[in-house]
Amino acid sequence: MKFVFAYTTGDFSEALSMIGQSPERLASMVTGIFSLDRVGHAFDAFGNGAGQIKVLVKGLVAITYNVPSAN
Fold it and tell me: Nearest CA to 57 among 19, 65, 38?
């Protein structure tokens, strides 16, 4: 078992490479999508136990991918 206190630049490089190869694999990780003007609502959703774990904030993403809308 490996415990990590901080990630290395190599870790980030490997992660970005994996994302670049199969960005569609990330779609199931996104539990909500918020526009930049609703980012406050995203934080509210985290705090009230609404089941939001990882959200996509439109307008802050440098790498674009069409993520299916969350219901």
Answer: 38
The candidate with the shortest Cα–Cα distance to 57, out of 47, 48, 40, is 40
Unique residue bearing structure tokens 């993403």 = 61
Domain ranges of the chain: 24-71
Q: What is the pLDDT of residues 12-57, one digit of tens each?
A: 899 889 888 988 888 888 888 888 888 888 888 777 776 777 877 8
Strand extents, DSSP E, 8-54: 32-35
- Secondary structure of residue 11 in the 3-state scheme: helix
- pTM for the full model? 0.47
Q: Are 55 and 30 in contact (CB under 8 A)?
A: yes
